[in-house]
């Protein structure tokens, strides 16, 4: 099993939107009572294209097949924010997410990482906490979704 990461291109939009939809809709299977949906723009080709063009969007490739994606925002001053990570449900629970998190932490040598996840997404919470992320506070997204903000402090990379 070989996992690699490549910058997403405009030609990848349709495939990535399908993966985003599958990934976020799977939450309604994992968490009965949770409505089908996802973060703003997850099901929009136009929104996804804008993110690819303006931000750091990477495809997650397993044995030459795209199985997920992730978006990182460089907030400046050593702070990076994981805006999105999604993996096709058919490929979840194989260590791909753990490798993706290691990739972004190596690719972007930040001293502080942040992310947020829905309060009901206990599987995500366990995953992030296993990787050293700490719950900082709870808040509501603009659409009313209750979220938990996470943070991870990284050791500064020595110069030279």
Report Rg: 15 Å
Low-confidence stretches: none
Instruction: Please tally the β strands and state the result.
Output: 7
**H and E string:** EHHHEEEHEHEE
What gap, in angstroms, lies between the N and C termini? Answer: 34 Å
How big a fraction of the residues is strand? Answer: 25-35%
Morphology call? globular
Q: From the 3D coordinates, which CATH architecture would you assign?
A: 3-Layer(aba) Sandwich
Number of domains: 1
Tell me the number of helical segments per DSSP (H or I, 4 or more residues long): 5
Share of residues in helices: 25-40%
The CATH topology corresponds to: Aminopeptidase
Strands in their spatial order, largest beta sheet:
1-2-3-4-5-7-6
Largest sheet: 7 strands, mixed
Walk me through this protein's architecture.
- By secondary structure, the chain is α+β, with helices and mostly antiparallel strands.
- It has a single domain, classed as Aminopeptidase.
- 30% of the residues lie in helices and 34% in strands.
- The chain has helices spanning 13-25, 27-30, 45-54, 96-107, 122-130; strands at residues 3-7, 56-62, 65-76, 79-87, 112-118, 134-140, 146-153.
- A seven-stranded mixed β-sheet has the order 1-2-3-4-5-7-6, sandwiched between helices.
- Strand 2 and strand 3 (65-76) form a beta hairpin.
- Helix 1 crosses helix 3 (45-54).
- The longest helix has 13 residues, at 13-25.
- 26% of the residues are buried.
Keywords, please?
160 residues; Aminopeptidase; 7-stranded mixed beta sheet; alpha+beta; 34% strand
């Amino acid at each position: 099993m070989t996992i690699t990461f490549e910058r997403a291109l405009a030609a990848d939009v349709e495939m990535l939107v399908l993966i985003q939809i599958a990934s976020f809709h799977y939450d309604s299977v994992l968490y009965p009572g949770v409505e089908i949906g996802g973060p703003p723009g997850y099901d929009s080709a136009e929104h996804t294209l804008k993110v690819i063009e303006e931000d750091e969007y990477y495809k997650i490739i397993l044995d030459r097949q795209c199985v997920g994606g992730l978006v990182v925002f460089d907030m400046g001053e050593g702070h990076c924010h994981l805006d999105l990570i999604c993996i096709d449900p058919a490929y979840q629970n194989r260590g791909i997410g753990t490798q993706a998190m290691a990739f972004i932490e190596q690719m972007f040598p930040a001293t502080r990482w942040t992310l947020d996840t829905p309060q009901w997404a206990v599987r995500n919470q366990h995953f992030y906490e296993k990787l050293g992320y700490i719950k900082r506070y709870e808040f509501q997204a603009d659409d009313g979704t209750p979220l938990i903000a996470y943070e991870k402090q990284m050791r500064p990379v020595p110069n030279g």
